[in-house]
Design brief:
The complex is a heterodimer. Chain A is mainly β. Chain A has strands at about 5, 10-15, 20-25, 30-40, 40-50, 55, 65-70, 75-80, 90-95, 105, 110-115. In chain A, strands 2, 4, 5, 6, 9, 10 and 11 form a 7-stranded mixed β-sheet that branches. A 4-stranded antiparallel β-sheet of chain A has the order 1-3-8-7, with no helix packed on it. In chain B, β6 and β7 (about 60-65) form a beta hairpin. In chain B, strands 2, 4, 5, 9, 10 and 11 form a 6-stranded mixed β-sheet that branches. Chain B has a 5-stranded antiparallel β-sheet with strand order 1-3-8-7-6, with no helix packed on it. The radius of gyration of chain B is 13 Å and the shape is globular. By secondary structure, chain B is mainly β. Chain B has strands spanning about 5, 10-15, 20-25, 30-35, 45-50, 50-55, 60-65, 70-75, 85-90, 100, 105-110. The chains are: A mainly beta, B mainly beta. The interface of A and B includes residues 42, 45, 97, 105 and 106 of A.
Chain lengths: ~120, ~110
């Protein structure tokens, strides 16, 4: 079974440009998560969805960040406009989220560099 | 919110040595996972262990939820064990899904 798929793997963009990161969760999983990893802040949860519905977006840093999950097999994280401080590795994760099984599985990440 | 502390922050081993990594958390949890982030950045699931003991090859883990800690044991370490080990927990107040990560233990295994 394929794991969590993310694209692109690397993204380099200029400040002010729009950036869209994409994620395909593991088939059958009903929860999807977006995390960001930086040297300063470590790994932090940005937002998560359950059954395609956003449940907690308290980790989204600013209004420049938005996330959508139009169906069970696809999600996007958009940054508009991007800033150099958004440079980080962005991970998508998914889980089955049933009682006694909330294990999350991570994708390979997207390394974003904003110049 | 819940605090997660991992120790030691850095660890250097000779190949073949054993080690114990610790994760302390400040509140009761209903989800605890150990991950290995390899040198290429991939986060690999090691254990889903909100309580009890599990073993997988040379690795094992124990979580004592009542005392708010978890231990990860690595036996007969290999150079491929190098990387950063993360403990992540979710507290009931945040649901089962809101994982909070520790700062990690950076392990280097030398031949």
């Amino acid at each position: 079974d394929a794991g969590v798929i993310q694209s692109p793997r690397h993204e380099v963009t200029e400040m002010g440009q729009e950036v869209t990161l994409r994620c395909k969760p593991i088939s059958g999983h009903n929860s999807l998560f977006w995390y960001r990893q930086t040297m300063m802040r470590g790994l932090e949860l940005l937002i998560y969805f359950n059954n395609n519905v956003p449940i907690d977006d308290s980790g989204m840093p600013e209004d420049r960040f938005s996330a959508k999950m139009p169906n069970a097999s696809f999600s996007t994280l958009k940054i508009q406009p991007s800033e150099p401080r958004d440079s980080a590795v962005y991970f998508c994760a998914s889980s089955l989220s049933v009682p006694k099984n909330y294990e999350q599985y991570f994708g390979p990440g997207t390394r974003l560099t904003v110049t | 919110g819940i605090q997660v502390e991992q120790s030691p922050p850095d660890l250097i081993l000779q190949e073949g040595a054993n080690s114990t990594l610790r994760c302390n958390f400040s509140d009761s949890v209903n989800n605890l996972q150990w991950f290995h982030q390899n040198p290429w950045g991939q986060l690999i699931n090691l254990f889903y262990i909100p309580s009890g003991t599990k073993q997988n090859g040379r690795l094992s883990a124990t979580t004592v939820a009542t005392e708010r800690y978890s231990l990860l044991y690595i036996s007969s370490s290999q150079t491929t064990d190098s990387g950063v080990y993360f403990c992540a927990v979710a507290a009931p107040s945040g649901g089962y899904n809101k994982l909070i990560f520790g700062a990690g233990t950076r392990l280097a295994v030398h031949p």
